[in-house]
Each structure stands twice: as structure tokens, then as C-alpha cells.
Amino acid sequence: MSLRPVPTEFPFSFSSIQADRLAIHAALAAGVFSASEAAPVLELRPFDFDQGESGSEGAWLPPFPETLDAVLPPRAPLAPLAPVSIVPACSDLASRLTPIAADPVSHQPALPCLIAALERAPEPCLAAAAPVAQAKTHHHAAHGAAPSAKNKDTATAGPTGPAPVPDSPAADKNTPAPPTLPQATAYTLMDATTGAILAEAAPDLQVAPASLTKLMTAHIVFQALHGGALKSDQVVPISVDAWHSVGSTMFIDTTSTVTVDQLLHGLIIVSGNDAAVALAEQVAGSTDAFVQIMNKDAAAMGMTNTVYTNVDGLPDPAEHTTAMDVAILSRNIIASEPEFLQISKQQSYTYNNITQASWNPVLAHDATVDGMKTGLTDASGHCIDATALRGNMRMIAVVMGGPTWTSSTAAIEALLDYGQKFFTDAKVATAGQQVDTLASEALDSGSVAVGAGKDITLTLPADAAARVTHAIAYTADLTSGATKGETLGTITYTLDGKTLATTPAVALADSAPASFVTKLKRKLSHFL
Q: Count of CB atoms within 10 A of residue 28's CB?
């Protein structure tokens, strides 16, 4: 961990970049100095503490000061790293900003001067320092118990106008209508196994993706791992651009020794924008090149309403997606990169002695949920992409645009409950299992066993599985016999006259053509 000279003329001194960032958050929140004081001496970037996952317009955060003497205006001299007492009003703030390192020279905590500065602040500011800092540094709490999701529940503007009209393409006439969710901009409930849409409302409405963008970032990184271009224990160099990332962060810097696996945890669990940039640069050489891969993969998956312009989901009017496209991407990830869920199910992650809670509030609420991702900006609202295994069904629920985490979590639960109550996955065909016997005098044995050419699982209304029927249309010429695996026709599965699926009808064994003697015996038998 790199150390910088202690500026004696200013009230702060820290032993790490991470401590700098935590302290600046707390100091701004507590009013130790103002953005207007800092702005003239440092180029600041917009960042709203309450919309912290992907960044937003609003409050100000100096994202990467080399030294804090460039940020803070002169104040009365204060001895750096001097012993200080923590006043009661700051005790909660102090616990939230537990030192992440000790100065190896003085052996004192990394953040004592923050407390000293707070002690020097006006009394009204001191009295409010702890609760304000707790509320406004929610995604940057250091070392110790991860903050709960409720501490992150700050409101964005909810949707205006009438609620999107819900529909259930997989339903039948006996299935109740899906829930109406007036606080959501759009939603999709998909069966992860079959891709069936159990419920939807404005599924193709283009909206800001926020950090749901990182689903595609993670997908491409996992593809690189599977293809051998990356190794999970490979150390990734951290560029200045990655270090300078604003918004949610896992607190890496240019001196960090961090692996691909650690970056994936930081990307998926704590939504680290710095992790997104570092991984993208490692895979593609630059974030611009990586974005090209993202859009190419999106097109290949059929995400026709998605355009990516960055790797982390920071606000950009040109970047957009839909609830349906997020569900399509999530289904692909579950099928091809199941290790994603092994990471996304974790409720917190610790890197460099900083423990941060998962941004996914549903994890703490529902034990059946094991992923996947959230997104939050002023433009996007509170977006949740969740997957749950309930009974024999894995479902993907995507809610876009909720005004709070509480409302979006409730919407996710309503959708998952609807899917579980009114639908089921039924395996109607198993490859290699006999479903019929085809009789033919063209065969020496007189018949051949027939089965489905592939497994077929259908998502059906809960009361409909028993009503599924199948019919086989044979088209094969058997004069030359039948070979195991040969397609003999087509099996069609229907429900109430509606075709649900088809599969080849295949021979389950070899069957030789009828010999001359067999044919003669059969002809003679017709005369007897």
C-alpha cells in the first residue's frame, strides 16, 4: 500500500487511496468542507451519493486526489496523525469508517485526522455527522459488517402515467392475470429452462440499463475464461482509468495486486465500476474495443433493443436496453456460465479489508434467489434482475424503474410467486425413451421401437400438464431397413389443439430389411 507525505497544514492525512475516498465521502457528508470550496482547485466529477451504484448528477465527489492538500482549503494548523478522541456524536461514523490500514511509521489508524476534523467542525454539523455520513456513504462502508440493503433504499422518481399492461403469453384461459405493478416501468418473468414468458409488461420498452450493463461485461469475461484467454488466478494490472472510475467501486488502485476472480467478485457482488474497466481492458485492450464485443454478442443473442456504450452502465443517453433483453442475456449466462450464480448469490464481498454488501436486496429477503444483478441511476430507477429456483422451475424476474429498492424487491417477489403458483415445467419427452412401435412388413422383425430425438421440457399452466398429447407422423421409407438414430418422422406435442413443440421420431434400434424368406412367409400367411 503506497504512502504519501503528510501535509501538516491541512486537517487530513491518510495512508491509502482507499482511505482517501472513504474520508472524502464522510467529510463532504459531514460538511467539513464544501464542494464549492474544493471545486476551484480540483476538477471534480459528478456523483450522487444516494444514487451511488452507477453514478448520477447531483452531489460532488473528488474521485482521485493525489494528495488532499490539493482539495481542501487552508484551515488552522493541525498536527497530522495526532492522538484524538472520538466524540460521541461521531462514534457511529467512526465505526462505519473503521481504519482499513495503519500508518507503519506512527502505527496510528489511517483515519484519525478525519475524526479530528469532525471535532473541529461546527457543533450542529457534528451532531448530524454520524447519521448523515451513514446515509450518504452507504456503498463505501469500510472493514466490518456489510451495510444492509435497507440502508441503500433511497428514492428515485417513479414511473408516471398508467401502469404498463401485464400479459402472460404462457397462460391459458384458466390462468389468472399477472400482477399489475404500477411502480415499475417494465418487467419480464421468464422460465430459464425453456425461455417461456410467464408474465410481461412493456417488455420491449427501451430504458437505461445502469449497472445491469455489467451482466454483459461479466458474460464476456467468463467467455474469455472458458476459451483460455484468461485464467481466474491471473493478476490484472490496474490502469489509471480503472482507478479513476466513479460510482460504486471495489477500491482498487494502480498499486493493487488483484486477480481476475477477485475482479469478477467485485464486479458482480459490489458492482465495481473500477472492476468493470480493469476486466474490459484486460480482455480487449481498451474499453472501446470491449464495447464492440458487447454489442456483437448482444446482437447474436437476439437482444434487438439493446445498445451498449460503456462497460459499467454509467449514465449515457445513447445506452439502452429492455426488460426482455436483460432476461435473454440472463438466461444465456445461466446456461453457459453457471459459475456466475456462485458469485452473485454471495451477500457481501471483502477485498483489501473492505467489506461491502451485495447491491441485490432480494438476496437477504428470499433464500430461493441466487442472483443476478442490480442497477441504479436517476435515469434508470431501481432495477433488479433476479433468478430463483423454486420447486422444479428456475425463473428469471426483471423489474425496471422502481422508485426504491423496497418497491422493486416487492415486485420481484410478486412475479416469482406468480410463476411458482400458476406454472410448472413438465418434461414431456426424454431422448432415447420409447414412445411408440412402428410396424412395417418392410422390416425383417416386423417393427422397430421409436422414441423422441431430444429431451423436451415445456412450461405449462399448472393444471395443464395432464392434457398434453402427442401424435407421430411417419415419413421414412423402410425398404432398406432402419438404423438406430435414423429419423422416421415427427412427434408433435399439443395442448388443447395448440402445437407446443415438435421433435424427430427416431429409431431406437437397428432393424434389417425383410429377407426373401420372410417376405415369402408373410405372403403365404395371407392365404392361410
A: 22
Known active-site residue 256 = no
Grid coordinates standing for 169? 403469453
Is 91 designated active site? Answer: no
Distance of CA 253 to the CA centre of its chain: 24
Residue 352, pLDDT > 60, answer: yes
Cell readout for 322 is 429492455
| pLDDT score at 10 | 30
Q: Percent of the chain at pLDDT above 90?
A: 60
Pairing between strand 381-390 and 498-507?
A: unpaired
Taking alpha carbons only, the member of 427, 466, 433 closest to residue 452 is: 433
Quick: pLDDT tens for 266-312.
999 999 999 999 999 999 999 999 999 999 999 999 999 999 999 99
Cell triple for 493: 406435442
| Given 56, 211, 245, 407, the catalytic residue | 211
Closest CA to 149 of 419, 323, 421, 361: 361
Q: Are 206 and 467 in contact (CB under 8 A)?
A: no
Q: Which residues contact 91 (CB under 8 A, 6 or more apart)?
A: 130
Q: Which grid coordinates belong to 507?
A: 429409431
248 classed as catalytic? no
What is the spatial distance between Cα 70 and Cα 37, in angstroms, rounded to a whole number? 11
Contact, 396 vs 327, CB < 8 A?
A: yes
Burial 87-99 (b: 16+ CB within 10 A, else e): bebbeebbebbbb
Chain segment 148-183, per-residue pLDDT in tens: 333 345 667 666 667 788 999 999 989 999 999 999
| Active-site residue, selected from the candidate residues 15, 271, 344, 408 | 271
Residue 394 forms beta bridges with which residues?
A: 389
Average pLDDT, the chain: 77
Whole-prediction pTM: 0.72
Q: Of 214, 248, 440, 511, which residue is the catalytic one? A: 214
C-alpha–C-alpha distance, residues 444 and 479, integer Å: 10
pLDDT confidence tier of residue 97, bands split at 50, 70 and 90: very low
How far is 271 from 513, CA to CA, in rounded Å? 64
**Gap between the Cα atoms of 60 and 418, Å rounded:** 42
Task: Return d(Cα 433, Cα 450) in angstroms, integer.
Answer: 8
Bridge partners for 373 per DSSP: 385
